[in-house]
Amino acid sequence: MSFPGSYAKKDVSFLLRRLPMPDFVEVAEKEKLIQSGRRHYSEMLSPESAPSNRYMTLFDAACRANNGRMARDCLRLAGLIAAKGMAAPVVVSLARAGTPVGVVVARLLRQVFGREAAHYSVSIVRDRGIDTAALRHILAAGHAPESIVFVDGWTGKGVIARELAISVGAFNAARGTRIDPGLHVLSDLAGAAACAASCEDYLIPSSILNATVSGLVSRTVMDAAMGPDDFHGCVFYEQLAPHDRSRAFADALTRLALEHAPAEAGAADAHGARERSRAFIAQARAKYDVADVNLIKPGIGEATRVLLRRVPRLLVLRDPASPEVAHLMALAEEKNVPVEIDPALPYHAVSLIRSASDA
């Protein structure tokens, strides 16, 4: 059964199973289980709590500084999608970083470009693919396969873009459909997306928060009880409702975007981003002696996720005085994460995850 999370029903349908509160796994233990191969990350959740007042002050500062830019990029992305010529595009955001973007982009497709856009948010899991039950549900609702457009917030190394291509390709082959597996994002650091509003690393304000800016929905879960026709699962954090910014954030972005309409639908420099990403990853693996590329997380969004949800080894910043990384400095201080300054860094921030063998 779909549900809207804390958004209005017209804004999104989460194609996720609402699960009871699970036995949460603390971050350090989860990291050991993931890196040892004993558990997949999609099988576990770590607890989420309300952000501190200090952290929300940083979120508000990020919104003041960058909501305008994010709104313009949402408008540009909506314009690029509208340019495909579909009368009724189906925005399928990837829960949960893609959900706020999907809400705003679908609104803009309707209000600015006159498209009858629907919006679903679905789960995708690295190494396990897209939620095929959710895709089947979308098609059963009468949407044309060719109308589906996948949306996320950003790419770091392009892992999810590649996962999407592989799993949607397999779905198409099995069912004879022609769903476009291309990923549409605001910021494509890896040059891996099919369509991007930008290839620059900037602070997307929603990347700072978790459930409280994404409809009060947890990271998605593939639990042992999941059957072949079940959606991936999630926890709905009703107890965090007093701290929820999901609707207010989407409303603010929509207002700002409408002030800039119509959008200019210019393509981002994916080739340049791809070459920059490849060169940096190779250099970082050698410099920091990293065997597993999954332990390197480039860009503000990915670096933030590491400090919020993983066990960080190191935070690397281009300029620690930049307002773009103020929240990362605060998190590093709270969690006693060492910080290295590299003025030549091609991104504002990079986080390294601690290898379990070093723990």
Provide a descriptive summary of the structure in words.
- With 359 residues, the chain is α/β, with parallel strands linked by helices.
- The chain contains nine helices and 14 strands.
- The protein has helices at residues 27-36, 53-82, 98-111, 132-140, 159-175, 246-260, 270-288, 300-309, 326-335, and strands at 13-14, 17-18, 90-94, 118-122, 124-125, 129-130, 148-155, 183-188, 195-198, 233-234, 296-298, 312-317, 339-341, 349-353.
- The strands form four sheets. A six-stranded parallel β-sheet has the order 1-4-3-7-8-9, sandwiched between helices.
- β7 (148-155), α5 (159-175) and β8 (183-188) form a beta-alpha-beta unit.
- α2 (53-82) crosses α3 (98-111) and α2 packs across α6.
- The longest helix is centred in the first third of the chain and has 30 residues, at 53-82.
- The radius of gyration is 19 Å and the shape is globular.
- It starts with 12 loop residues before the first strand and ends in a 6-residue tail after the last strand.
Protein structure class? alpha/beta
Shape: globular
Please give the share of residues in helix. Answer: 25-40%
Provide mean pLDDT, rounded.
93
Oligomer: single chain
* Largest sheet data: 6 strands, parallel
Q: Distance N terminus to C terminus?
A: 41 Å
Strand order of the largest sheet: 1-4-3-7-8-9
| DSSP strand content | 15-25%
